[in-house]
Amino acid sequence: MSALLLKIHPDNPPLNKILTAVEIIRKGGIVIYPTDTVYAIGCDIHNQKAVERVCRLKNIQPGKINLSFICQDLSHISEYTKALPTQVFKVMKQVLPGPYTFILNANNNVPNILNTKKKTIGIRVPDNRIVQLLLKELGNPILSTSIKNEDEILEYTTDPEEIYERYKNVVDVIIDGGFGGNEASTILDCTGNEIEVIREGKGSIEEL
């Protein structure tokens, strides 16, 4: 059965369509959705079978996977990370929601969820209305990874129709929120004494 395609207006998402996607995610479904950067694949962080499906899609062993937790706000983050240094918290408060991924020291909740020994976790709070409503109705973060393109020139697929044709038989619901971006988030490693830029992306370094 092909994935359900939900066309959702990015500025005024209808609640009934959001709830349809959330119900599928809660039942262990895999979702493709827009963010404030590129389109992403995600699932409920608490559904182990769904997490394993995402890993298979990315051809990565679950114990070695580098996925992000997509959170609604800063209060969500404290449930999965160790205490944040004041400097890091100030930066996060300044730029989130926005196109940044923060690598943080994970607390004991993360290994239990992912069945992994990883001691760090990527955290994102996208500035995207569709994502914000999904997270609000779901009640917990989404485990997520960006959709990469096999094209050597275009790194990320931006057209929802192309995404649907490519993934309709391997995921459960695809949210068409309009054309996506082709620039990923800026990644900041905050696990050491200083904030280190791992990848410069859409998020401005100057704002930090």
From TrEMBL:
Record NCBIfam families: L-threonylcarbamoyladenylate synthase
PROSITE patterns cross-referenced by the UniProt entry: YRDC
A GO MF term: double-stranded RNA binding
Protein's recorded name: Translation factor SUA5
Domain YrdC-like: 15-203
Stored PANTHER family: DHBP SYNTHASE RIBB-LIKE ALPHA/BETA DOMAIN-CONTAINING PROTEIN, THREONYLCARBAMOYL-AMP SYNTHASE
